[in-house]
Structures are given as C-alpha cells and as structure tokens.
Amino acid sequence: MQRDVIVREVGLRDGLQLVKTFVPAETKLAWARAVAAAGIPEVEVTSFVPAKVIAQFADATEIAKGALKIPGPLWCVLVPNRKGAEFALDAGIRKINFVLSVSEGHNQSNVRKTTDQSFDEFRQIVELKSSKPEWKDVVLQGCLATSLGCTIEGHVPPDRVLSFVDRYLSLGADEITLADTVGYASPSEVGNLFHHAIRLAGKKPVYAHFHDTRGLGLANVVGALEAGVRGFDASTGGLGGCPFAPGASGNIVMEDLVFLLEKEGLKTGVDLERYRAVRGIAEKALPEEKFYGTIREAGLPKGFTPPSRQEAAE
Amino acid sequence: MQRDVIVREVGLRDGLQLVKTFVPAETKLAWARAVAAAGIPEVEVTSFVPAKVIAQFADATEIAKGALKIPGPLWCVLVPNRKGAEFALDAGIRKINFVLSVSEGHNQSNVRKTTDQSFDEFRQIVELKSSKPEWKDVVLQGCLATSLGCTIEGHVPPDRVLSFVDRYLSLGADEITLADTVGYASPSEVGNLFHHAIRLAGKKPVYAHFHDTRGLGLANVVGALEAGVRGFDASTGGLGGCPFAPGASGNIVMEDLVFLLEKEGLKTGVDLERYRAVRGIAEKALPEEKFYGTIREAGLPKGFTPPSRQEAAE
Question: With contacts defined as CB-CB under 8 Å, which chain A residues touch B214?
Fold first, then answer.
C-alpha cells in the first residue's frame, strides 16, 4: 500500500523509559509483533543507553535482534552516543535515531554532555557508519529534543533550533526529528518552525514528535501537517514522558493520531482494529500506568471508512 | 479588556443535561458566579426545555433570573421551541440560542419535530421578539446540531448545513453556531464548512461548538480559527454529551481551549487561576462524573505569560 504519511510507534522506547515495571523481553517482542501486525510502518523499538541509566533497556541488543526477525516495519532505535550506535549497528539495526536537546540545560540533565559534545558524538557515528560497507545504507536520523520549549530553560529560540538542524545536515544526517518533549508548543509555532526546517532539509524527511502534556498534541499535528510534515511519532495509549517534566502526560496517542490522519484523507496503512492487540499487551504489562485516548472507546464515525481500509478492500 | 475571541461556557447547560445528579439551584448559581469571576465573557446558563424531558432544567427561570443579577458575562440560554423562548424572554434573558439538528433523524429524536417544524418555531420566536419594545435588542442565535455528522444518519452533507445557515439568516437570526455534536469532524472539514458559513453570515458572528468524543476537539479549533471563527463553546472539565451518542466524552475542555487560544496570541480575558474555582464547584457537585483536561495539572509552560494576563498587568 502507498502510504501518505509515516506513523512511528515509540511506545517501546519513549513509552517504557519512565515506567516502574520492568517489562520482560518476551513481552516487548510480543508487543513489537502486534505493532507490526497492525501495519505500523516504523517502530522505535528500544534505546541503546547504559543499563545503569535506564534499567528498562538493559535488553536492548536482545530486543533489537528479536525485532529484526519480525517482517514488516522498519525497526529503529534511539542512541545518545557513539557507543550506543555501535551496539545498534552490531545488532543489525538499519536506522538510528540520535538524540540531543536544543536546550543546553536539558542536554546536560539528559545525557551529561554539552550540545557541542553531543554533536561530536554524532560526527563519530557518521564516521563509524562509513567504516564498514554493510553499514553504508544505515539511515541516521538527527533528533532535537526540546525544540519547542524546555522545562529547565523555558523558551527555546527557533533560530537556535534551525541552526542545530543545519549542523546535523552538515554532519551527514539523513533525516531530522523535531520534538516538543514537554508539550509546550501551539499549532502556529509548530507550523512556522517545521516550515523552515523542511526548507533546510530539502528532500530529507523531517519528523514530528509531540507530547500531549498540555492537551495540544493533535492540534500541533495539524500545524505540522500544514507545514508539510509526513512523519509522526506516537505511542499506544499515550505512554511516555520526560524525566525532567514530572507528572506530565506522554506522547500523542497512536490510535487518535491515525484517526486524525485518515479522517483528513491521508493513508497511514494502519489497521485500528488490529492495533487493539497492542494496547491489550501494553495494558497487561503495565497495570499501574494510565492509558489515554478516545477513538478506541468511541469507535469510528458512522459511515466512515478510513482511506487505508478502502484501498485494502479494493 | 479587548478580547480577540469569545469563549462561551456551556457547562451549566450541555454539561448538566446528561448527568444523573440533580444540581440544586444555589450550587448552579455559585458555579455561575465562579465562571463570571474568572472573566468568561459569555455563558449558556440553562436550557428552557420541558421539565418532563430534562428534570435538571426544571429551575430554568430561577437560574436565568439569578444569573442576570451577576455582573460580567452575557447570560444566554438554549431553547428548542417558541414556548421556551417566551419563558426566557419573560425571565429577562438578552440572548437566546435556538437549536435544531441538521440531521432529520437527530432532530426527531432530540425535539420530536421535523426540521421544517423547528424552523417554524424559530420564525415564531422572531415574531415574538418584535412583539415587545423591550425585547427588540435580544440577540437570536441559530444553532445547528449535527453539522459535521450524526450518530443516526452518519455523514451530513455540507450543502445541507449551509442551506440551513441561509434559512436561519433569512428568518432573522443574528448569529449562527455550527456544532459537531458527536465528535465526528476533522480540521479540514471544519475549515471548509466554517469558511463558507462565515461568507454567508457576513458580519454576523459564527460560533463553533466541538465535542472531544474522538480526541479531535482542539485540533478542530485550529481548523475553525484558520477559517476565521472567533467564538467557541467549551465546558469545565469537558462535561457534556449527547443523549444519542452513549458513552461519548463531552465538550472540549475550557481550560485547555483557553491555553490553546492564549498560546496562539489571542486574548480570551479568562484567568485560568480563578477558573480553578469553577472546576472545584463542579467536581464537588458531580462526584460521579469524569472530568477531563490537562493544562490544569501540567501548569503553564515556563516563562509563558498569557496575553490576557500581560494586559491585565499593564
């Protein structure tokens, strides 16, 4: 199926990084299989961070290798440094999302590095990638956390964000993600920032990562769509959060995002009925977590067939 | 203060029409006083429907008269027929929101009339208004439920909605509200429909009434804003619902709507801190209801001062 927009599941990474319950590898892989079966085209399936920082991801190599055996999605992972990228490449991962924060204070808190040091890690990853022929086609995505505000520094100047986009591109990033890590953005700010980022990136894709902390997650998707964004992160039931925004609710809800996009006539390729299994696995694995979302309970509008399902029926 | 946009509180009407608990008049009036103190410019404070249909509104005259003594907001009421309008006018109300559904099936279920019969009721209200000099300046708003879809009939054709807007205007409506009663709409549908409705209405205001049943309430506000809408209904904690959409969540949340508008640079004149008292009264009065919304818990972004508060400080 031709998809008009890529929805990327981040429940197994962003969604798990703050939860108190350790989810066993076999459950994570069952979760990943359910995501694949629902037609999600891309999944951030784990994070290669030191186990002493986030114990949940101690099994990153096992998860990455296990996921790569599941047909369907592009399996990508988050890494904060060169070492993480090396583990990911060794596991066979074909797309790496490198993260740093535009806010200096947030980057220090999150990865204990200056932004200059983080960019140097990214430079080393680009070198590493070119060191083996089998890594040549691996996609490197440059992710910018706190692109629309920071709980530590407050306002983050768009000019600084765009200069970081430029820096990533100059170093060799194949794609960009701009993240509203703490749910500060509003639609017109989003529209403006992504408009300029897309101009800088040319033909390289620019993804959006929104948190729904202040209720504007899907409103901000509207701003991003209008700017031309065609890649969106979301998680099952809105799982996720930032360690430096306590009490904040998480990512935008995958089911609701898919409904928005399909109602706007954009094919996601996702089967919402099959996606129910993902939610079921996640709710069983994380009984103490709060799950968000409305479309799952309310059902689709009477007489509405999502464009993805229309094509599937043809 | 100059307001850029009107937010209208409908918690005391839409928010109460389905709840199981009868809220005593003194509590409703305390609620109305708290809404006024928070700077809300317009309030739909009750509904003049027969008590045998909705017992909650048996005290409509008492509430209307009591609210009119509270300085600040424009106090308006919902009416489904001429008789209700007469009660409202006798109580001293200066703005009447007449409701009918674009969907023939929904109008039958809701008010047991054909849409032709409902328009005839509206015609009689226009006549009634001109029958006494003191009623001459009363504002008549024509509201169209199910303007973006119907749980009974499914798709509702935009051409039919616009022909109903035209009919209201020809009969003498001073304002229009288009309602997504059951939460079926998406932003571009909203944008298109309101764009045309605003063209038909000329200088007469067009309000938007969105339900968040499928999570797109605030996303649809973005579509409506872009079309030029500057009047929005919302309720405290998202209370509300439609009797013909069981299990549906309610209106968009007032606090989150105000945050969206202020973050977009539009002055609402609402003080979110003072609005907390409204939520407090509503939660105490309705312990069995679910309250929605995020900004109240998450707080405003660091360093962000709403435009309304900036002006208040000057």
Answer: 256, 259, 294-295, 298, 301
pLDDT in tens, B103-122: 999 999 999 999 999 999 99
Collect the ranges in chain A with pLDDT lower than 50.
none
The per-residue pLDDT for range B215-238, each reduced to its tens digit, is 999 999 999 999 999 999 999 999
- Is A259 in Cβ contact with B216 (below 8 Å)? yes
pLDDT at B1: 76
> How many A×B Cβ pairs under 8 Å?
119
Q: How confident is the model at residue B133 (pLDDT cuts 50, 70, 90)?
A: very high
CB-nearest to B155 from A149, A155, A303 is A303
Q: Nearest residue on chain B to A154, judged by CA atoms?
A: B302
pLDDT band at B124 (very low <50, low <70, confident <90, very high): very high
Q: List Cα–Cα distances, B90 to A305, B48, B65, B94, in angstroms.
A: 48, 12, 10, 10
CB A94 within 8 A of CB A65: no
List pLDDT tens digits, range A37-93: 999 999 999 999 998 889 999 999 999 999 999 999 999 999 999 999 999 999 999
Judge whether residue B170 has pLDDT over 60: yes
B184 φ, ψ to 5°? -100, -20
Confidence of residue B20 (pLDDT cuts 50, 70, 90): confident
Among residues B76, B143, B150, B242, which one is catalytic?
B242
Test A216 with B155 for CB contact under 8 angstroms: no
Paired strand residues for B258: none
A150 is catalytic: no
Chain A residue numbers touching B218 (CB-CB < 8 A): 215-216, 218-219
Q: Cα–chain-centroid distance for residue A58?
A: 20
Residue of B142, B146, B145, B167 whose CA lies nearest to B156: B146
Catalytic residue, chosen from A76, A143, A150, A242, is: A242
Nearest CA to A252 among A235, A268, A264, A269?
A: A235
Q: Cβ contacts (< 8 Å) between A293 and chain B: which residues?
A: 215
Put simply, whether A149 touches B (Cβ < 8 Å) is: yes
Angle of the A25-37 helix axis to the A60-68 helix axis, nearest 10:
30
Q: What is the distance between the alpha carbons of residues B235 and A266, in angstroms, rounded to a whole number?
A: 31
Q: Which of A153, A215, A293 sits opposite B256 (nearest CB)?
A: A215
**Superfamily classification of domain A6-313:** Aldolase class I (3.20.20.70)
Task: State pTM to two decimals.
Answer: 0.96
- How far is Cα B12 from Cα B281, in angstroms, rounded to an integer? 11
User: Residue B313: what pLDDT?
Assistant: 62
Could you say which residues from 40 to 99 on chain A have a Cβ atom under 8 Å away from some Cβ of chain B?
none
What is the Rg, in whole angstroms, of the alpha carbon atoms belonging to chain A? 18
3-state secondary structure of A100: strand
Judged by a CB distance cut-off of 8 A, whether residue B180 touches chain A is no
